[in-house]
């Protein structure tokens, strides 16, 4: 990977914005430009909540992010029927990449969702490794999925990966991206060069902490989820997910929207809490961002 001269962090956002204060507080010093991309309606037509917009505007006001951009979905994927939302989600990710590369001038970018958390120490370590290696152009890392709080994790039947820091010139292509390990098809990079290898950062160096099932309102996530129309039994599945989520006790499996056997995943309780986000989810930001060199750390 060529030297990282300017790193952009782009955040795909609609609901679940309560995590953004912790995500951006953790990575503010490590990124040269942070942008949150919103849209007025979900992939299925639900309007964005004023509270989610206000959350992002507050982050900009107090310096946690640099800008807010708005994405307008088009009807260019109408012929894709149930999968149209997934194609549009890929468009949104590329829209952010266009902004970071062409308008901000970022040499490298990382595109994440609004519930994806990185530990700042691990992030800086991985960033330094990539910046020193001129032969790496695209990188991925593994992730761990949390369930309801920071001490319970879901155990997938396979390892899962997300893109990490990558040269800004690359774009995602739904269905035809190049990555031969389990990953979200809306964010697989198209690699035009003959060599289609990606660097995978080892788990013990950096990992993404997926806070997907930690929400102030879990039903908002379910309603906005881009893949929900791929499940013919979605409404029944939603009822089962909510019932399990609100009545969960240690030893139970999670019921989730995902292609795993029986829509059921084992949940393990961690021996201790490994990540320590600074703010409570319901907490409101009232003061400007303070550099990590001046706070008490995590």
What does this structure look like?
There is one protein chain. With 298 residues, the protein is an alpha/beta fold. The protein has a domain at 7-212: Spore Coat Polysaccharide Biosynthesis Protein SpsA, Chain A, CATH 3.90.550. Helix content is 24%, strand content 21%. It contains six helices and 15 strands. Strands 5, 6, 7, 8, 12, 13, 14 and 15 form an eight-stranded mixed beta sheet that branches. The chain has a five-stranded mixed beta sheet with strand order 3-2-1-4-9, sandwiched between helices. A two-stranded antiparallel sheet has the order 10-11. Strand 2 (33-38), helix 2 and strand 3 (67-70) form a beta-alpha-beta unit. The chain is globular, with a radius of gyration of 18 Å. The model has no long low-confidence stretch (mean pLDDT 90).
- Looking at the structure, the CATH topology of one domain is Spore Coat Polysaccharide Biosynthesis Protein SpsA, Chain A
Question: Outline, from the CA principal axes?
Answer: globular
Number of strands: 15
Helix and strand string, N-terminal first? EHEHEHEEHEEEEEEEEHHEE
Work out the strand percent.
15-25%
The CATH class name of one domain reads Alpha Beta
Main beta sheet strand tally, sense and closure: 8 strands, mixed
Q: What radius of gyration results from the CA coordinates?
A: 18 Å
Low-confidence stretches: none
Whole-Å distance between the termini? 30 Å
Average residue-wise pLDDT: 90
Structural class, by secondary structure, is alpha/beta
Total helices: the number is 6
């Amino acid at each position: 990977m060529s030297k990282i001269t300017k790193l952009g962090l782009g955040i795909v956002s609609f609901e679940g914005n309560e995590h953004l204060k912790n995500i951006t507080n953790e990575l503010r010093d490590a990124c040269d430009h942070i942008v949150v991309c919103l849209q007025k309606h979900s992939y299925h037509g639900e309007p964005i909540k004023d509270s989610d917009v206000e959350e992002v505007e507050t982050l900009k006001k107090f310096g946690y992010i640099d800008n807010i951009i708005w994405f307008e979905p088009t009807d260019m994927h109408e012929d894709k029927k149930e999968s149209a939302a997934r194609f549009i989600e890929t468009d949104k990710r590329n829209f952010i990449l266009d902004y970071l590369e062409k308008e901000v001038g970022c040499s490298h970018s990382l595109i994440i969702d609004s519930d994806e958390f990185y530990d700042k120490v691990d992030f800086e370590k991985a960033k330094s490794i990539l910046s020193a290696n001129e032969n790496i152009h695209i990188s991925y890392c593994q992730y761990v999925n949390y369930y309801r709080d920071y001490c319970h994790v879901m155990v997938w039947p396979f390892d899962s990966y997300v893109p990490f820091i990558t040269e800004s010139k690359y774009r995602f292509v739904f269905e035809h991206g190049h990555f031969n390990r389990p990953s979200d098809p809306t964010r697989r990079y198209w690699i035009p060069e003959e060599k289609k290898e990606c660097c995978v950062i080892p788990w013990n160096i950096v990992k993404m902490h997926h806070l997907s099932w930690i929400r102030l309102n879990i039903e908002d996530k379910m309603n906005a989820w881009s893949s929900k129309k791929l499940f013919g039994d979605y409404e029944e599945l939603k009822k089962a997910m909510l019932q399990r989520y609100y009545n969960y006790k240690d030893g139970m499996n999670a019921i989730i929207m995902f292609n795993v056997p029986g829509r059921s995943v084992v949940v393990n309780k961690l021996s201790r809490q490994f990540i320590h986000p600074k703010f409570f989810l319901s907490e409101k930001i009232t003061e400007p961002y303070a550099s990590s060199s001046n706070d008490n750390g995590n």
